[in-house]
């Protein structure tokens, strides 16, 4: 496998990461995960825009968006992977450990590609989730490398035999540890508004576009844990999990536990958008 680190494409086993990379000490950087379906990027522009925006939110300025696209395009070409995901991160640079920003350090880019199949089983059968307190910082809209709370909350789900932890602030549901969350109640699709309390997922935005295009009733309006638990349908979204139904919340069935009608409709439209990639 060919990957990229700090200016060079190399075989994976020939890459050595500098231990003074600030990503390593502080999680001082931002990242993206982009899906490749049948050799084509999905929503590349949106991911690259968010990467540059996340970087500027943490004062890593002047990133060359075209260069970032060139790097991942080259990765896609050098690795013969038809269906996969590309991880790309930008750190503040390499400098001996010191909290304050290093003067003159150049951002360091790391990128690699993995093979990845679509999560068909979970998209059909749904997943179980648990809920927990959201104690993250107040810049959740930044796709930061600093994922300690997310990691610990995902582990909580794993230990409970569940798939994801949905987070709430004082009973108001924000998002999952690595996903956005939607409910359907009385025919209305709802998700937390895109503010500093959530990452505005690209998949979330696709779902909202689908809702708009399909004439579904929807609102970017937060909901409570009680509303989550009494919803007719619940699903989570992300680049790798796509649109995944939730069958149980904290051990209680959502509806009758099977995939809901609106979830199914959105999945079909999402699928359509993936397939359209190769028709143009
Ligand atoms: N929320 C969090 C905290 C995430 O880490 C992610 C993705 O990894 C998402 C939401 C979903 O975002 P996207 O649909 O852009 O992958």
UniProtKB/TrEMBL annotation:
UniProt entry tagged with the keyword Transferase: yes
Cofactor(s) recorded for this entry are: pyridoxal 5'-phosphate
Signal peptide location: none
UniProtKB keywords? Aminotransferase, Pyridoxal phosphate, Transferase
* Group of enzyme by EC: transferase
Instruction: Keyword check for Transferase, yes or no.
Output: yes
GO MF annotations, alphabetized = D-alanine-2-oxoglutarate aminotransferase activity; pyridoxal phosphate binding
The record ties this protein, via Pfam families, to: Aminotran_4
Q: Where are the coiled-coil regions?
A: none
The UniProt entry, under NCBIfam families, shows: D_amino_aminoT
How is the subunit organization of this protein annotated in UniProt?
Answer: Homodimer.
Q: What does this protein's UniProt record list under function?
A: Acts on the D-isomers of alanine, leucine, aspartate, glutamate, aminobutyrate, norvaline and asparagine. The enzyme transfers an amino group from a substrate D-amino acid to the pyridoxal phosphate cofactor to form pyridoxamine and an alpha-keto acid in the first half-reaction. The second half-reaction is the reverse of the first, transferring the amino group from the pyridoxamine to a second alpha-keto acid to form the product D-amino acid via a ping-pong mechanism. This is an important process in the formation of D-alanine and D-glutamate, which are essential bacterial cell wall components.
Task: Please give the name of this protein.
Answer: D-alanine aminotransferase
Q: Which organism is it from?
A: Salinicoccus roseus
Taxonomic lineage:
Bacteria, Bacillati, Bacillota, Bacilli, Bacillales
């Amino acid at each position: 496998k060919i990957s990229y680190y700090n200016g060079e494409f190399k075989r994976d086993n020939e890459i050595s990461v500098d231990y003074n990379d600030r990503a390593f000490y502080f999680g001082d950087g931002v990242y993206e995960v982009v899906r490749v379906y049948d050799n084509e990027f999905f929503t590349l522009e949106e991911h690259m825009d968010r990467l540059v925006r996340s970087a500027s939110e943490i004062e890593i300025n002047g990133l060359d968006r075209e260069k970032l696209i060139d790097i991942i395009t080259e990765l896609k070409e050098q690795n013969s992977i038809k269906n996969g995901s590309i991880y790309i991160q930008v750190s503040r640079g390499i400098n001996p450990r010191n909290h304050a920003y290093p003067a003159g350090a150049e951002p360091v880019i790391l990128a690699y590609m993995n093979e990845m199949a679509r999560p068909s089983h979970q998209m059909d059968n749904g997943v179980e989730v648990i809920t927990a307190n959201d104690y993250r910082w107040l810049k959740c809209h930044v796709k930061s490398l600093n994922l300690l709370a997310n990691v610990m909350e995902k582990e909580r789900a794993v230990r409970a035999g569940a798939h994801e932890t949905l987070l709430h602030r004082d009973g108001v549901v924000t998002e999952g540890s690595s996903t956005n969350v939607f409910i359907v109640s009385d025919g209305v699709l709802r998700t937390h508004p895109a503010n500093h309390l959530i990452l505005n997922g690209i998949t979330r935005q696709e779902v909202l576009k689908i809702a708009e295009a399909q004439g579904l009733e929807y609102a970017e309006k937060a909901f409570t844990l009680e509303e989550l638990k009494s919803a007719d349908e619940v699903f989570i979204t992300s680049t790798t999990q796509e649109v995944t139904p939730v069958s149980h919340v904290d051990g209680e069935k959502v509806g009758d536990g099977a995939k809901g009608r609106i979830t199914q409709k959105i999945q079909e439209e999402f699928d359509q958008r993936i397939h359209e990639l190769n028709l143009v």
